[in-house]
Amino acid sequence: MELERRGVVAPLVVTETFLPLVQAQARARRVEPRLVVVPHPVGGLNEAELAGRIEGAAAELLRMADEARGGA
Amino acid sequence: MSAGLLDLPGVTEESWQEEAHRRGWGDGLPLVAPTPARVAAALAALDGIDLELGPLPPSGLVPTRESFAANAVMAGCRPVDLPVVLAAVRALQAPEYNLHGVLATTHPCAPMVVVNGPVRGTLGINSGSNCLGQGTRANAVIGRAVQLVTTHVGGARPGVMDRATQGSPAKYSFCFGENEEDSPFPPFSVRRGFAPGESVVTVAATEGPHNVNDHGGTTAEDLLLTIAGTMAQPGSNNVYVKGPHFLVLGPEHAATFARDGWTADAVRDALWERARIPVAEVSEANQRQFEDWGVVPDNDAYPVSTGPEMLHVLVAGGAGKHSAWIPSFGATAAVSRPVPGA
Amino acid sequence: MSTDWDVVVVGAGIAGLTAARVAAEHGLRVVAYDRLTPGGQLVNLTALHEHPGGTGPELVAALTAAAEGAGVRLAYAEVTRVHPGSPVRLETSGGEVTAGAVVVATGLGPGRLGLPGEEALARRGVSTCAGCDGPLFRGRAVAVVGDDEWTAEEALELAGWASAVTVLVPGQPRWSPDRAARLAAAERVEVVPDATVTALRGEGVLSGVVVRTADGERALAVAGLFPFVGRRGPEGLVEGLAADAQGRLVPSGGVLVAGDARAGAEQSLTAAEADGRAAGEAALGALAASSGSLRIVDPTHGVLPEVDAAPVGAGSTATWTDVALFTNSKPNATELLRGLGERLQAHWGLPELGFAAKENASVAAEKDTIDWLSQRFKMVLVAVGD
């Protein structure tokens, strides 16, 4: 979140479980983070499961990235 | 109505517990209703003392005098307990304590509060028999108040923001005094640079205590073998996150060390050498995990934390042949603060 | 008394959302019902005047966020009947609920002329929302019927689309001098006082209206007609509550009414907001009076420290080809980031990505690392929570 304050586009990859925590921090810092939410957990996954997480999150990330670049 | 007061319509002293529970407040145990009169009485103990508190994660809110005192009241504190609670909350706001990491972690760490100095006697903080257990009001309410302040103002509600996998009963309350009177060593706070006779609170984010039973040992060497064996376990954060850990010697074990000519620092240094985890007791997957954190074995064994200075030795408890090892979250530090006004 | 809610607010427009927020800020359990979406008429207002809230939807978003932030639950169901009492019982399309207090803030229903054929021409030329339907009348003539602030505001809005806007005022305008001046300055707007619409013309779609003035009756060819007269309050919603000639409720017997739905309300945003605030406070008072209350010090209270919220100038010359990954070093976080990074690399045709890692997932990032990333890169993909 500090990166965004410095003008860097910084999407945060966060699991559903930790989303409330990240949102609370964002409120405390008065920033609106760009969030890419993936199902929990990430740790302990095997390669196939991890590939699934990447697949699921990629579209949202690319959309967010295009939007940020287009708006700059 | 001034900010920070709530009128709970339809709620009475009798139905207050239900209301507090419904609002997600507290730790599951009954709470004292923080009425303005009770809070004002509690705040009288902080007359002339600035809170000197900063924002609490994750909400980023700074407690007000009133909300700080309200949490102490809810925990069951008497007014005289507040300065010790304040010292503890100040200590856990030190950056090296890493409160944010502590609140959000899956690790079962609790804010351990150790009290030194005359305030133990004034408040009746137990440093003797069953000091880590139930039954002493000051220990129970001070440790609990520290948790409630961070939970309520910081907003780290269990299960929502507090992501502990299992947690620990120590998270209800974890506060005790050092048994300076029965210790052969200088007080823990004095060894940490405070003046003798000064009341000091030390906090760290730790697990609950692990018992070290040694009834057969008669020498310091005997005890060291048992303690080192208890510490040399591959499942503590201190192995790869490193950080501080604590050895709380029962007075009888401490007396054995002293009789054999050992100082607290000598005990610490010997345990650094002897508490080693054989590589064979660590899975290859965990060896790789340790290596990712920059931890490599030293002669086919892993040490506990990074050096002898990471082990803090103190004395607490009553009669008997038990001591306790208290591992920590790792990414934390022992932080000491004087008790204001004491 | 055990109730489902301390306060039920019926209608989530500016008055309702404000009442709900104020009550919730006092620690009450509050639900605000709306048939559709929060916002009431505000959603239909593209530009707001006399209120510093930006556009209607922007103000709605802010009001909704403030209410939810204070703990208000928003429920999307229609409240069909309110039975005052202790507790208050409310029939809703989602079942019955009970509350200690109720605030009725439904606003007014849509405008109606009460002419034959009006129902059949609804949404076929007859509309009550300039912001929604204005673009349908681009380059065509429309008429607006009414005498109040809403009428003027909607006419001004329509002037942005229509070729001509005739404002038919049943008597004399009641809008403010400021709005009168803005209407006079609008080239395409003509205001006709003492005008009555006597008939609608059109087969299937509206083609015109018949207007009677002191000069007699004449036909006015319009493709669109926006009536803001004949709007009625929620009469009959609350058992035993009296209504005025416009169907607006007269508060009594502990039933609170806020905003345009209240008899005697001044129709403006600021008045509705003030009304909502007063109703929220009154709900608190009513509850305390009926059942007593326990006053406590809020144990969750705190103050946000002053922070410099302004963006810190990076002085960075990084471009969109400068993209990095920043991992928290938890197991698999790095792998996940690299996977996502590869997708972005392919998508944008990027060269190598930068990479940084927190040494320890459990502590905050090093300032040096943040400095390096912010100076060197335009975009950094960060793994934070697991």
From TrEMBL, chain A:
Residues 2-64 form the UGSC-like domain. It comes from the Bacteria. This is UGSC-like domain-containing protein.
TrEMBL record, chain B:
It comes from the Bacteria. This is Uncharacterized protein.
Automatic annotation (TrEMBL), chain C:
InterPro entries: FAD/NAD-bd_sf (IPR036188), FAD/NAD-binding_dom (IPR023753), Ferredoxin-NADP_redctase_2 (IPR050097), UGSC-like_dom (IPR057767). GO terms for molecular function: thioredoxin-disulfide reductase (NADPH) activity. It catalyses: [thioredoxin]-dithiol + NADP(+) = [thioredoxin]-disulfide + NADPH + H(+). Residues 296-386 form the UGSC-like domain. Keywords: Flavoprotein, Oxidoreductase. The keyword Metal-binding does not apply. It comes from the Bacteria. Residues 6-260 form the FAD/NAD(P)-binding domain. SUPFAM superfamilies: FAD/NAD(P)-binding domain. Signal peptide: none annotated. PANTHER family: THIOREDOXIN REDUCTASE 1-RELATED-RELATED. This is Thioredoxin reductase (NADPH). It comes from Geodermatophilus poikilotrophus.
